Amino acid sequence: MLSSTNSNEDASVFKISSDLALVQTLDFITPVVNDPFIYGQIAAANSLSDVFAMGGEVINALNIVGFDSCNLAPEILGEILQGGAYKVKECGGIIVGGHTIETQQMYYGLSVTGRVHPDKFWANNTTINGNVLILTKPLGSGILSTAIKADLLSMEQIKEAATIMAQLNFYALKALDGIKVYGATDVTGFGFLGHLSEMLNENISFEIYEKNVPIIASAKEFADMGIIPEGSYKNREFAKHFIDKEADILLFDAQTSGGLLLAVGEKDAMLVVKRLKEVGYESSAIVGSAVSKSEFGIFLR
């Protein structure tokens, strides 16, 4: 076992040989949009992301399904599975089976197997002093998912949110080719600051440039209206002990299929952002840096 079991890693990394390690993870979510095909895409992208957060590539995946076949048409399930298979294929993997159980609450996700070189996987807590933090996707999907359930979003806003959530983190690995990544995670259910706190170690604190953190514009509007998922408040309660002052609730927003949070060398940071934008992560931004260990783990600037 190469990955730590004590640092909330995104996936397990298990060494098979001198040049091969398996990356394994699973995740599933309830519907965040009404369109079953798009929901399948988003759920799959969310599940696959943990492999990419470890610097790995996808081999195959198994479907995990909870479905109410007594009250829902089988065509709905078919569209969900098609959406998932589409995303797995997009990153070079294949669906090899799965399991469905009868449930009133629908859910869908994947158990994913990937591969990585044993000496080249990314851990979440190995950032060093002087590293620069880069976030690849904007925050706000949790708030917008809540607004969708309340039927508050326009079709244009729904499309924007769905496009961001369905975007694979796969292409970020191409942008990082030849770049040393010191630490990485993906921003999902614990929110930006929650997952950032998992990147801390005994040698560093983080300075976050709060105004640089990309946020979906419509999410700001709904946050101001109080449309905030319960999980975001729980995230704030958990992470507040690491932070030097009160932070915007959007920095705690529980994300679905959020972006990668990457620690790279200062000399590579601008190049990485440029490459990320070129492969489709238009909101990519430098959001902070690692500094010497101090009183708090996270300082907002």
Automatic annotation (TrEMBL):
The record's section on InterPro entries has: PurM-like_C_dom, PurM-like_C_sf, PurM-like_N, PurM-like_N_sf, SPS/SelD
GO BP terms in the entry: selenocysteine biosynthetic process
NCBIfam families under this entry?
A: selD
User: What is the name of this protein?
Assistant: Selenophosphate synthetase
Any one cellular-component term (Gene Ontology): cytoplasm
The keyword Nucleotide-binding appears for this protein: yes
Superkingdom, natural source = Bacteria
Identify the Pfam families for this entry. Answer: AIRS, AIRS_C
Q: Which residues cross the membrane?
A: none
